[in-house]
Amino acid sequence: MILAILLCAAAACCGCGQKETAPLSEGAGNAPAAAGSTPAELPLDQQIEQKLDPLTKEDLELYLKVMRAAAERAKHLTPADQAALDGAKKILAGSASGRIPTRDDVKTLDRANLVAVAMDQIVAEEMKLDGRNYRGIFEAVESAVPNPALGGASGDGGAPTPDRTPTPLEKRLRDVNAANEKFLAPYRVEIQQLMAVVRNPANLPK
Description:
Strand content: under 5%
Helix content: 40-55%
Shape: globular
Radius of gyration: 18 Å
Number of helices: 8
Distance between the termini: 10 Å
């Protein structure tokens, strides 16, 4: 995505070493790993953001509550949301002529990216939800249900390549995603309808 690429480039130009697109609140236990750490050195439950246990009814209710609100807001943008999208369009147009985005531009692009394809993160933050918990849930839901706007599954389900043995994490993800797919089957249509609104790449400023 052009916007995502420009975001990364702009962040580098501005000397931003941290990921900007992380509006949800973080728990103290979710601190980044020390430099040089590898996924194999981390405990299993810290190697991926997705929830590693099968989804519960409460998880699904929370996901649907947030996504329904996000879809409604995406259809009826607030003035601030629209301003972020309009500002991003101007920044993208300026970048075509060689203008280097400023730090403020990076913030505008970041916000526009959330408005376009991650409105649920904005809504979840405003609902004062635990960021790590919500991320784990939506990653689990959207790893089991294909996003129609992308023309395929949201994730690979943790499937290993044919020429090697699956890691413990991959095996666990495969089993969990299979269980989640069955659990979510009655809600699949609504989930896809919500994702088509909230996570449609066509919403990104150009």
